[in-house]
Amino acid sequence: MAEEKMIYGSLFEDDYLIRSLGGGIASQPEVALTELVANAWDAGATEVKIFIPPEKGQRLTIEDNGIGMSQEEFHNRWMKLSYNRIKHQGKKVVFPKGVEGTRFAYGRNGVGRHGLLCFNDTEYCIATTKNGKMLTVTITTQIKGQPIAITNENESDIDKNVHGTKLDVIVSQNLPNVEKIRDIISAKFLHDPHFTIEINRVSLKLEELKGVLDQTTIKIENTNISLEAYFIDSQKALRKSLYQGIAFWQGGRLVGEPSWILGQEMVLDGRTTLAKRYTFVISTNDLSDEVKEDWTGFRNTEIMKKVYQAVSVYANEKFAELSRTSIDETKARVKQDLKEKLKDASPLTLYEIDEAIESISIESPKATPESYNIAIEAIINLEKSKSGRELLQKLAKFNEDDIEGLNQMLDKWTVKDALTVLSEIDRRLTIIEAIRKLSKDPNINELHILHPLVTEARWLFGVEYDSAEYTSNRQLQTVINTLFKGKAIKREDINYNKRPDIVCFDQSTMAITGTEEYSDNSELFTINKILIIELKRGGFKVSREERIQAQNYTEDLLASFPDARINAYIVGDTIGDNVQRITTVGNNEVGKVFVSTFAQLVDTAEKRLFGLRNKLCSMYDDVEGMELFKQSQAKLPFK
User: Fold this and answer.
1) 459/361 same-domain check
2) Overall domain count for the chain
3) Is residue 113 domain-shared with residue 59, that is, in the same domain?
4) In the prediction, which pLDDT does 633 show?
5) 597 φ/ψ angles, rounded to the nearest 5 degrees
6) What is the pLDDT of residues 477-491, one digit of tens each?
7) Do residue 315 and residue 331 come from a single domain?
8) Would you call 17 helix, strand, or coil by DSSP?
9) pTM to 2 decimals?
10) Which of 297, 322, 347 is the C-terminal boundary of a domain?
11) 443: number of Cβ within 10 Å
């Protein structure tokens, strides 16, 4: 194919290169210098010397003893935008003659070399030496239409044993702080005896792995990736690191900044004592392809998800081991924090606290000090509580039969199971005792007192009514409103939206509810059972007139619901002479009216509760009826 002739080339804005560097290289001195040190590493240097001037207008220099570049290499590498180092030079570093070792290069995209533009965005100088030749050039960004260009270039002979590169720039902006740069660069590279960094004639002490509690090799499943994991105690390292968390080092260079967050998972709360004291270092040479081009972190890949998962498992294992071995230390800290609250604690309480701390340490090794304190305070408060002390006193007074009975019960039931059953029995007995004590009082309001009690005891009228299926139905409500129109009294103290099943009369309150079932004939849900409970005021005597009224209501309802079965109950304190107790209504006795007393309800409850009311009645003898009502009703079912 014939070579095509270019008609017109691309154009560049004057600040194209500055804007394309990214990652803070052009604006943050620490980022720019870190990248330039990384370039020296990639060049096989064993030492890097940086000089930072005290003020602007003076020269900043970076000099290394790496392999250097020939004129051709400089043109092809330094002057090529976004030079791909891996593609052209491979992952491994080539050392100068006489230097041995193995390194993996940091360079990826060829932008770090232009870090001097951070300090002067127009010009900088380079002197690079290789194979007896020294090349000196001046680089500028001021040539129109060119992102970067050489304005001065000279090549000269020099001693063949000399090699390396020196960068030189007059600082016009972003003058670095020497001490800050020393701290940051010290923490960006792991200690290597064959690589030293000097800033203003002071050698940096690079990050060293001291205070190592554990070293483990982690193999990532279904990959060739191997990680060397170090668990470090910063107190034993005798040197405060600039960072805390899990640090990843690729080829000896820190990737991003250490953190307790791996991907989307937080391994540890950074505010905890553990987080402030311990660090993990994950060192590898196998993650270069996963590192972002600006080294601010790793790319979001499936491989990194596996890496994070493996490192998280390792970290959690170490924290669990540490927690188990530091239980005594944790006990001492918790007791010191809560010493005022523990000064009067009994030996039993102190024993329970020790057990609780051990349990938390083993089950939740990453629990915060606040979590420990909250748990222990709860134990202290329980010990001080009235119920706790009363329980101990009652146990001390148990006779042999009581102790044997309790032991047998706990063999079969948990305390929670027993409390659940006993609580329900107590609730029912409380309701029945409240009905017994209040039903004879003519001043007791049947709507707000007796009616809620009987509603809670609906099981008294039959086991089938002891369920939540009896509810208000719109069709039934419509019929009730029509049936009792003009007869019922509207009460302002009732919220009929919440209790539409309520019908009020002068001397009584009626509740009407029903259930629905699917009808094969109509293929619709129809009302199949209706329960009517009419409660009279306390001390009321039910006469024949009330029974006849209930019978009439039942007949009217059967006319509207011919397929339903209706049970109507009229409940008063006493029943008049010659009043029939049970009356059937309609064909096949589908409707029934029952006249009964509150005492009958209590007797029925006694039988349904297996005689427990009589056996345990002494528990309620000294409790007033209204107090029993309050105990049974956390809040009224309607207003």
Assistant:
1) no
2) 4
3) yes
4) 62
5) -115, 165
6) 778 777 777 777 777
7) no
8) helix
9) 0.50
10) 322
11) 9
pLDDT band for position 638 (cuts 50, 70, 90): very low
Shortest CA distance to 112 belongs to which of 178, 38, 52, 41? 38
Coil, helix or strand at residue 6: coil
Q: Name the amino acid, one letter, at 471.
A: T
- Shared domain for 151 and 50, answered yes or no, is yes
- Tens-place pLDDT, residues 595-633: 988 888 888 877 776 566 565 665 666 667 677 677 666
What are φ and ψ of residue 593, in 5° steps? -115, 125
Amino acid identity, position 43: A
Determine the length of the chain.
Answer: 639
Do 200 and 178 meet the contact criterion of CB atoms below 8 Å apart? yes
- Paired tokens of 242: 């600039």
Read off the DSSP letter of residue 103: -
Which residue, chain included where needed, has tokens 């007059």?
170
Residue 577: both structure tokens together: 């002479």
Q: To which residue do tokens 């409380």 refer?
A: 430
| Residues of the domain holding 257 | 212-322
Query: Do 364 and 371 form a contact (C-beta atoms < 8 A)?
Result: yes
CA distance 259 to 367: 18
Cα–Cα distance measured from residue 82 to residue 147, given in angstroms and rounded to the nearest whole number: 12
> Which token pair is 417?
């199971």
Residue 614 lies in a domain: yes
Whether 364 and 375 have beta carbons less than 8 Å apart is answered as no
User: How many CB atoms sit inside 10 A of residue 241's CB?
Assistant: 18
The vertex-246 CA angle with 215 and 372, nearest 5°, equals 95
What pLDDT, on the 0 to 100 scale, is given for residue 467? 60
Same-domain pairing of 63 and 159: yes
For 73-115, what is each residue's pLDDT tens digit? 998 888 887 777 777 888 888 999 888 888 888 876 667 788 8
Res. 461: pLDDT tops 80: no
Q: What tokens were used for 364? A: 């939740």
Last residue of a domain, one of 153, 185, 203: 203
Q: Which two tokens stand for residue 169?
A: 């720039």
CA–CA distance, 581 with 566 (Å, rounded to integer): 16
Torsion of the alpha carbons at 270, 272, 273 and 277, rounded to the nearest 10: -10
Angle between helices 327-337 and 302-325 (to 10 degrees): 70
Residue 391's pLDDT is: 56
Q: What is the mean pLDDT of residues 14-43?
A: 79
Q: Which CATH number is 147's domain given?
A: 3.30.565.10
| Statement to judge: residues 197 and 219 lie in one domain | no
Q: How many CB atoms lie within 10 A of CB 493?
A: 10
Check whether residue 179 and residue 251 sit in a common domain: no
Percent of the chain's residues with pLDDT above 90: 21
Closest CA to 572 of 531, 532, 540: 540
Coil, strand or helix at 303: helix
**What is the residue type of 464?**
E
Q: Find tokens 């790793």 and name the residue.
A: 298
CA distance 114 to 18: 9
Asked whether the predicted pLDDT for residue 588 surpasses 50, the reply is yes
| Whole-number Cα distances in Å, 382 to 339, 340, 394, 415 | 17, 16, 16, 17
Alpha carbons 516 and 577: distance in angstroms, whole number:
37
Structure tokens at 561: 């619901």
Q: What are phi and psi for residue 575, nearest 5 degrees? A: -125, 135
Residues 613 and 549 in one domain: yes
Q: How many angstroms separate the CA atoms of 605 and 461, rounded?
A: 10
pLDDT value of position 483: 78
**What tokens does 44 get?**
């096989």
